[in-house]
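Re: weekly structure request thread

Next one in the queue (260 aa):
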Amino acid sequence: MNSVKVLSITGMHRSGTSLVSSWMERCGLATNDGDLYGPAAGNLKGHFEDREFVDLHAEALKRMFPRSKGWIAKPNQQLDFTPDLRARARALIEKRNKTYTLWGWKDPRTILFYEEWKRLIPDLKFVCTWRPCLDVLDSLVRRSRASDNAVMKISRPDALKLWVAYNKQIIFLKKCWPKDTLIFSVKELIREDQRVFELIRNTFDMRLTYIPLADLLEPTLFKSSLHTTNIMSLFCRLSEVHSIETELIQLSETVMIHPR
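Done, posted below.
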């Protein structure tokens, strides 16, 4: 009997995790058990998120941070599940393991709970995507304005703090489990999709079949920021954002593809 392999796709919101999830699903990764969150403002093709995993994370965040809306949380350390939520997580794992030999899930919030998931699935692998801060801020604010859903509303200052918190956790994850974690920038993921695919398949020894990313890509979703204010741009350059982006570049597997 083949051993079960599990892959988590995570990273900051608006940083390409939905694209990677839809791509990995086409390549052979079981990313849901029949209940996905559907399209919404900013994700017209869908989020490619398994509802049971997203709801678990959102509930955990709302319990700890009642004003978080289930996603706008900026912790500076890893978060823990309560015993009842940990039991739910175990049940999800057992259910998927009985059904699939190669499965995973996508949720940006996972990056805030990676230690919990690693305790529950010791051999869990991670693919993390990242995107420059200003591009993410622009995307989040545009989605906020376009959506009638109060849950999606976010201010620029909160978006900036969120980007910092989530991407710091990506860096911590890579340093804690370097052999189990691959980091890719969205730009080079799109540019070098076949080589990125080969890294994922070969590094994690997963039976996946290459499908061109271009078949799924909506290029307008990843355009560079044009609307972020000059003040915000200057603030990002003067804040810790620059050092975080520099470290992400250094840790990204794409450095091996296109050395800078």
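Residues 39-46 have pLDDT under 50 and may be disordered. The beta strands are 5-11, 102-106, 125-130, 181-185.
Next request, please.
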